[in-house]
Automatic annotation (TrEMBL):
Main location: membrane
Topological type in the membrane: Multi-pass membrane protein
Cellular compartment(s): Membrane
Keyword terms of this UniProt record: Membrane, Transmembrane, Transmembrane helix
Transmembrane region(s): 7-28, 34-55, 76-98, 104-131, 143-162, 174-196, 230-248, 268-288, 300-324, 330-352, 364-385, 397-418
InterPro entries given in the database record: MFS_trans_sf, PucC, PucC-rel
Organism domain of life: Bacteria
Pfam families: PUCC
GO cellular component, one term: membrane
Species for this entry: Blastochloris sulfoviridis
Protein name in the entry: BCD family MFS transporter
Gene3D superfamilies reported in the protein's UniProt record: MFS general substrate transporter like domains (1.20.1250.20)
Family: Belongs to the PucC family.
Length: 447
């Protein structure tokens, strides 16, 4: 498999995440807006399509199993990116078709978003497994931050480039811009990942026994206490993380009277906080700090508890009103979210190789499915809960603060779950940086 990844190798794999994010942002953001604004279609249509793409992520364990059996992750990454690119192009064609034939366009959109869900799951799962197996332990926290930031960069750069190319808007221009960006993203991913993994090791003599049917492999992973606890933790924490995504800006408008421009800036403050939290985890996990800032457990638990406190402050903001320092609360929420998420991703890399051998893909797929399911449910449940409470009570403040309070409780529960995951006790950085075979053993969870 080769020696542990250098920083350049980690950045190369981060470029794959950038390419993946570039296609995703076009389909979940740009086309969402086109359907609702330019085509005047119900908002529930793109919402249902995005939810469907998340629902397909429950198949991630199966795709991870496929890469485990094959022993090589690169074909799954490239193949997944190809399917994702086709799905993105298909989604643009479907959106354009809706302007003349809504029924046919919607049917094509369902097929396209199916391809998007499959492509994201196949490429994303194998990419994370490759990182987990090839990144030495002292570099996991910084690597997690690099990959996450590069995905966000893919969102930002693509949004800016596509935004300038789409004006003046027309359905034909949407298809042309999406097709060009999808092809560019695919080529970037291929160049970035090519040769990084190296040749797959020869199959061991016990290969038939090491490659049981998928259901057996999944049952073996689920039977592992650490893997099972981490799956539940990810679901609970990511449910809390995502539930405020679609209601924070409406809350700022309804309770604080912010304009759309002001609430958009508030969202920017939150994302700045997320970036700050990610960078803090990366620094804590660097050789410079040498483990003096605690274990992954401290960062995960602390991030969850501070997230709960920040959400409690939003509840207080709803009660106090415009006099509350809302921007400060939102920044702290973002920073705490970033810290716990970065530490969770780094922990995922370390835990992927623990337990039954040759199950890294199934393990990572199980965790990816848990996250995706939580994200899909979180945004939907958060908005539905606000609508129901507003309808019953008639007070938007009670509706929004009720959801924030529930999220805070979920984060507290998540912190409690994290204390039960013994694999999080490893320091974020060792007192010395290991090299050669010792580092590779750490990167794969063996040795």
């Amino acid at each position: 498999m080769g020696k542990p990844l250098s920083w350049f190798g980690i950045i190369r794999l981060g470029l794959v995440q950038t390419a993946l994010g570039a296609i995703i942002v076009l389909t979940t953001s740009t086309m969402n807006r086109v359907m609702v604004v330019e085509l005047a279609l119900p908002a529930m249509l793109p919402g249902a399509l995005v939810t469907w793409h998340y629902a397909l992520q429950t198949l991630r364990p199966r795709w991870g199993y496929g890469s485990d059996v094959g022993g090589s992750r690169t074909p799954w990454i490239i193949g997944g990116m190809a399917v994702l690119g086709l799905g993105g192009i298909g989604a643009s064609l479907a959106t354009a078709w809706m302007s003349t034939n809504v029924t046919a366009g919607v049917l094509l959109a369902v097929i396209a978003f199916t391809l998007i869900g499959v492509g994201v799951g196949a490429a994303g799962t194998s990419l994370l497994v490759l990182l987990a197996k090839r990144v030495a332990e002292p570099r996991r926290a910084p690597a997690a931050t690099i990959v996450w930031i590069m995905m966000i960069a893919g969102f930002a750069v693509t949004a800016g480039v596509a935004g300038s190319l789409l004006d003046p808007f027309s359905p034909e221009r949407l298809v042309a811009v999406t097709s060009g960006l999808a092809v560019a993203a695919f080529l970037l991913a291929v160049v970035a990942v090519w040769g990084v993994e190296g040749k797959a090791p020869p199959a061991p003599a016990t290969a038939p026994e090491a490659k049981p049917p998928f259901r057996v492999a999944l049952a073996e992973v689920w039977a592992e206490p650490e893997a099972r606890r981490f799956t539940v933790f990810l679901f609970m924490s990511m449910l809390a993380y995502s539930a405020q995504d679609l209601i924070l800006e409406p809350f700022a408008g309804a309770v604080f009277g912010m304009t759309p421009g002001e609430s958009t800036k508030l969202s920017g403050i939150q994302h700045s906080g997320v970036l700050a939290g990610l960078i803090a985890v990366a620094l804590a996990g660097s050789a410079l700090c040498r483990g003096r800032l605690g274990s992954m457990r401290h960062w995960v638990v602390g991030g969850c508890l501070v997230s709960a406190a920040a959400l409690a402050s939003l509840v207080a903001a709803g009660v106090v009103g415009p006099g509350w320092p809302l921007r400060a609360s939102v920044f702290v929420l973002g920073a705490a979210n970033g810290a716990f998420a970065g530490a969770a991703i780094a922990s995922m890399m370390g835990l992927a190789g623990r337990g039954h051998a040759a199950r890294e893909g199934v393990r990572m797929g199980l965790w990816g499915a848990s996250q995706a399911l939580a994200f899909g449910l979180g945004g939907f449940v958060g908005t539905v809960a606000v609508d129901i409470v507003r309808y019953v009570v008639g007070d938007p403040v009670v509706a929004y603060t009720g959801v924030f309070a529930t999220e805070a409780l979920l984060f507290v529960v998540s912190a409690g779950l994290a204390t039960q995951i013994h694999g999080l006790d490893q320091p974020v950085a060792r007192d010395r940086v290991r090299t050669g075979e010792e580092s590779f053993a750490a990167g794969t969870g063996r040795g």
